[in-house]
Structures are given as C-alpha cells and as structure tokens.
Amino acid sequence: MFSDADAAALYDLLNPWEPMSRSSDRFYDELVGDADSVLDVGCGTGAMLHWARGHGHSGRLVGLDPDRAALARARRRTDVEWVEGTAADAAPEAAFALATMTGHAFQCLVTDEELRASLAAIRAALRSGGRFAFETRHPQARAWQDWNPSHARELTGPAGRALRVWHHVESVTGDLVTFTGTTAEPDGRVLRVDRTTLRFLEVAALDEFLAAAGFVLEGRYGDWDRGPVTAASREIITVARRM
Ligand SMILES: C[S@@+](CC[C@H](N)C(=O)[O-])C[C@H]1O[C@@H](n2cnc3c(N)ncnc32)[C@H](O)[C@@H]1O
To answer: For residue 189, what are the contacts with CB-CB under 8 A and spacing of at least 6?
Structure first.
C-alpha cells in the first residue's frame, strides 16, 4: 500500500524547495520576493509558498492545484490560501502581481485547448502589467531519454520506508511524452504506478500560445543563471507580462 498522501510526501522528499542551494528555486524565490501578491499555479505540496511565508513574505499568497493529496500537504500551512483546481479554473481577479508554474508544471498542459484556456485564465488572474514565470523542458535535450529503469533510485521514503523508484517511457508522439513512475519495495515488488503525459513545446510554438493569450515576453532564458537559450539549453525559462 502506498497512498496518494504517501506519494505527496515522497514528492517533497525528492523535490525539497531550497533557494539557498538550488538555482531554479532561487530564480523563483527572487521573483516572489519582488511581488506583493503571488498565484502559484500547479503549486503541488506548496513548498515554494511555504518557504516565502516562512521567510517573511507578507503579501497575498495563493496556491492552486487539482491534486487533493498534494493540497492536503500544502494546507499544513494555514496562512496561505489554497484552492483546488486546474490552471484553467484560476479566478479572473485581475489582482496578482505574479503568477508562477514551477517544477515543470506547465508541461502538464497537454492539449491546445488546455493551453489556451489555462493561459487565458492566468492572464485574467493577473493585474495589468503582472508577470507570469514558468519553465518547460527544451525538447532538444530529450530529457525523457533518462527516464528509464536503469536510472532507478533506492531511497528512504516517508516514515523511513525503504523504496525503489524508477520511470519508464511508454510513448513519444509528436511533442507528447507519456511515461510511468513506479514506486516499489527494494526487492522490486510494485506498490504503485503513476502515468503522466507531458508536452514538450518548441520555443516558437510556446511564443505563439503566449502572444495569442495576450502576453508579451519580458525574459527568456536557457538556464537558471539567466543565460540565453542556445542549442545546448535543457530549459526554456519564460517571464511573460500581461499586456
Ligand atoms: C511536478 S508537479 C510541480 C509542483 C510544484 N509546482 C513544484 O515546483 O514542486 C506538477 C503539478 O502540476 C499539477 N497540475 C497538473 N495538471 C494541472 C493543470 N491543468 N493545472 C494546474 N496544475 C496542474 C499537478 O497536480 C502537480 O501538482
């Protein structure tokens, strides 16, 4: 038995929010620190907003995610607003200085319709001039090629439980990659399998969606030190502004 709550706890163990040591987390932490109100779309377990509040952010902080088990962990902090829903469900408040999608959450937006509806809702949640910051893995780096059982990890999971975790890519169709994540006992006995499809948009396609939704590009980076996107970049990091 490995419940949704266990999976959410494992996510936090595997993906600690550490702006002091991880440049990706620092990138977002600086943006959050500069914004008086933040909507974190696909907030998951809420680690970014937990950190921000815990380190003195005094403005409005809202986390939005469709995953109930992840949100239940987020709700351990009650001085942040937590909302269950997808990006497309973001309320049209025209209120936020910053919206974020961290941890490649943007790649969960798979269909054109979902992308359009999500971007429209995020834009409507932002005040005029508000920023939307997110990253998507650059397809040229083919990150999914490392998502296979030969990269399995042995680790100590929630409640000190010894675990083995690995990924397996089922299909690569156009810009969609479908893969499973397996959580198992150390001897390989499977506890749970989660299937995910992620979209790997090219830069030009991404920018068409952003422009059509009413965003202008403010910053575009290929790494977390704000270097340009090059033929070697693994990330497409975007800071867009609501027109
Ligand atoms: C890899 S996790 C990233 C979580 C968190 N942002 C982080 O940096 O650790 C992706 C998150 O996106 C959420 N998600 C999936 N589809 C979504 C959608 N349509 N709108 C908003 N969030 C979504 C998932 O529930 C999950 O919590």
So the answer is: none
DSSP 3-state assignment of 157? coil
Same domain (yes/no): 38, 132 = yes
Mean pLDDT within 93-121:
98
Q: Residue ranges of the alpha helices (H) in 101-228?
A: 112-125, 203-212
How many angstroms does the Cα of residue 152 sit away from the middle of ligand 1?
Answer: 23
44 CA distance to ligand 1 centroid (A)?
Answer: 5
What are 227-238's pLDDT values in tens digits?
999 999 999 999
pLDDT mean over 117-129: 98
The residue range of the domain holding 114 is: 4-139+200-242
Are 124 and 10 part of one and the same domain?
A: yes
The closest-lying atom of ligand 1 relative to the alpha carbon of residue 86 is 20
How many domains does the chain divide into? 2
Q: Where are the alpha helices (DSSP H) in the chain?
A: 4-14, 23-33, 47-54, 68-74, 112-125, 203-212
Distance 16 CA to ligand 1 centre (A): 15
CA 236 – CA 199 distance, rounded (Å): 13
Could you tell me if 39 and 126 lie in one domain?
Answer: yes
